[in-house]
Amino acid sequence: MLDDFMWRALFAGVLVAMAAAPLGCFVVWRRMAYFGDATAHAAILGVALALLLNVSIFLGVLTVALVMAGCVSLLSGRGYAMDTLLGVMAHSALAVGLVAVSFLAGVRIDLNAYLFGDILAVGKSDLWIIGGGVALVLILLFWRWSSLLTATLSDELAHASGLHPRREQLVLTLALALVVAVALKVVGVLLIAALLIIPAATARPFCRTPEVMAMVAAGVAMLAVTAGLRAAYVMDTPTGPTIVTLAAVLFTLATVTSQSWRFLRQCIQ
């Protein structure tokens, strides 16, 4: 039988996968990969501020992630290319966060746990926080699904439907900030973007509708979490990186399969 800490790790990983994968579909459709990366990198600054102010790590990370997302949304289209703006803000936030952590006198902090995740250390209180955050993200996505899809397809189509693309982007950034905050414990700052993007990219070649892609991506993410946890336990490897490695393997298999099938169809025709 699995120990209690393994069950908690499994539940935490599956919960995060359920929220990250559908949200990752929008990240892939909107080509916002660097946006998720920038929001995740800001999490280290949130950790430092939370320790400095003696508040919850989750609250600190969520606040900084929201501020980062808001700043990017506000500054986009004001003279800077989006990839340039995100690159500057992502690496600046990570660097400032690492420097700030070094000034925390009398506080012992394992940076590796925040950079690469420490899913095996998830406690009961962490599980409740993760569950609450995931529930909020899923409710938000279910509520705004149609509007988000319309705004993703075209700003003009969104305006014609009576929607505000900026508002829908704000909803998406709010959901991203929540996922970053709850996923920090599972895969860490440097791997959060991978958990968002890889399952969605894996599902994309096999799905014809957005809803199916979101469900398949969630299945891929949960499989990667489950298999990654098992592999890390057996091989004694870092859990967060192992989960992402399994997701990358699934992506490779999916890509080879889809390309091979396409080649066979062309040969038959």
Care to describe what's here?
The chain contains twelve helices and no strands. 81% of the residues lie in helices and 0% in strands. 43% of the residues are buried. α2 packs parallel to α5 and α2 packs antiparallel against α10. With 269 residues, the chain is an all-alpha fold. It is globular, with a radius of gyration of 19 Å. The mean pLDDT is 82.
Largest sheet: none
The fraction of residues assigned to DSSP E strands is under 5%
Order of helices and strands: HHHHHHHHHHHH
Basic shape: globular
Radius of gyration: 19 Å
Rounded to the nearest angstrom, the distance between the terminal CA atoms is: 52 Å
Structural class: mainly alpha
**What share of the residues lie within helices?**
over 70%
Total strands = 0
Which runs of at least 5 residues are low in confidence (pLDDT < 50)? Answer: none
Number of helices: 12
Mean pLDDT: 82
Summarize the structure.
The protein is mainly α.
Could you outline the blueprint of secondary structure elements for this entry?
Elements: H1 4-29, H2 33-41, H3 43-53, H4 57-75, H5 82-102, H6 111-116, H7 124-153, H8 155-160, H9 165-187, H10 192-203, H11 210-235, H12 239-268
Describe the structure using short key phrases.
mainly alpha
